[in-house]
Amino acid sequence: MTLFLAAAQLLGGIGLFVLGISMISDGFRLAAGEGLRGILGRWTKSLGRGVVAGAGLTAITQSSSAVTIATIGFVNAGLISLNQSLGVVYGANIGTTMTGWLISIVGFGIKIEAFALPLIGVGALARLVGGTSRRGAVGMALAGFGLFFLGVDVLRDAFLQAASGIDLSQWSAATLTDTLLLVLVGAVMTTLTQSSSAAMALILTAVAGGVLPLTGAAAMVIGANIGTTSTAVLAVIGATANARRVAAAHVIFNVVTAFIALGVLPLLLWTIEFEAGLLVGQHAPAVTIAAFHTSFNVLGALVMWPITRPMSRFLEGRFRTNEEQAQRPQFLDDTIAKVPALAVGALSREIDRVDAFATEIFSEAIDVSRAPLPAVLARKRAALQVLVVAIAAFVTRVQKSELPADISALLADGVHATMQYADIAALAVDIATQRSMLAELAPGPVRAALDRLSTQAASGLHAMTNVTAADSDRVSSIHAAIQEQYASTRNEVLQAAVAGRFDVAHLESILETLRCIRRAMEQALKAALLKARLDGQAAPHR
């Protein structure tokens, strides 16, 4: 029965602690609002400032996950580079060690009920009165702090009661096998609880209660540091490439830091224990472990600092999406730029890729067999835009040389063609957005008319791919047929509106979809004729 009560008290303490951490994190995150993003935006301009921002925000919010997710958002938006985000990752690992200090100094240093219960009361009242306002969010955080320390107190009592019946002296990390076993235990604890703070609370209360030797606790803290990467890894399953890169950086940092900590464990622990004894004036194992946790994370950041840029370049070459692969030029480089004749051939091959990419986007937007996905097409369109900009930059570099007039004109035609394809992709996203709404709004006959035009436009766009100068008449006749179908479809839609077959409020959306298809085909005609002229001159250089 005593064992059952001890286990129940242990589980209750963990529950209070985790609930408190969650409330602190949510409360401060809601109170900060856009402030969190603003601080990260201002404080990630350099690696050092990123470390400070990551450490400070994590220490305040008690959630490295919130800070990391905000950082991933900045990387995805292109506001900061992956290299800049790594500073925040380093800092978040340092900031999360603040939990250990709170437990070891405040949690064990004074009578907890004296302030924990008032914090819960004041915080709950502020939450009740403030509701969803900032005041209510701060109240949630205050109540969370009260539960946090109350959970520590319950855990401490549980371990003090268990100390007399449990002998873990053999887990002193005296051998390499013992050390690695304890590292594994710490990692598993963090993975199971999905909270490094909860694992730290268990370790610190165990070592303070005399249940766990100091060296064993240090090894488990190293394991907890590794285990905390499981949260990041689980969070980015199926996520964007940038999210996976930031998570990979988190894993690399924590693993490297763990190896460093294991290598210097005896010396670092002895040094910290000696200095803690001088400062505190007595043996304080919990303070020693908290200081050890902070020290090896700071040491890890210092070791990783010089290799941050190479690591970011390495990660940028990993986890590539299809869009990222597509947006990188495959045939253009600075060596070719120095030979204008070769540059024309390479440009022609690169524009073939742009043509195929734009055709794919447009075909998906008007595919009548499935519902369009505007968000997916928008990402593809953004990737195509990056490729178009890269092509324009390449042509600019070639144009710096003295070129024959005909070569210069061909290069200009190539850039003009890529712009037309970029316009087709932009129109495709607009069409997909309109079709998503019209699937529910437009009546059957109107949707059927739109589908007929879409099918003809898709067929026409594919027919305009890889044309030659000799195909100009055929391409023009394809465009004329689509224009005729557009006029017929537009007239059919207007007659249906006049006859009251659908809500006239939806007429503009339907007509805008038709106009987008017509404009896309006009751009396709222009691009096909420009590219045909370029291909004719580039053929000998392929």
Explain the layout of strands and helices.
Elements: H1 2-32, H2 34-42, H3 47-61, H4 64-76, H5 82-95, H6 98-107, H7 113-130, H8 134-163, H9 176-193, H10 196-208, H11 214-227, H12 229-235, H13 241-263, H14 265-280, H15 285-304, H16 308-316, H17 322-326, H18 334-337, H19 340-365, H20 374-399, H21 405-441, H22 444-463, H23 472-498, H24 507-538
Description:
The chain contains 24 helices and no strands. The protein has 542 residues and is mainly α. The chain has helices at 2-32, 34-42, 47-61, 64-76, 82-95, 98-107, 113-130, 134-163, 176-193, 196-208, 214-227, 229-235, 241-263, 265-280, 285-304, 308-316, 322-326, 334-337, 340-365, 374-399, 405-441, 444-463, 472-498, 507-538. 81% of the residues lie in helices and 0% in strands. The chain starts with a helix and ends with a helix. The protein is elongated. Helix 10 (196-208) packs across helix 15 (285-304), helix 13 packs across helix 15 and helix 19 (340-365) packs parallel to helix 21 (405-441).
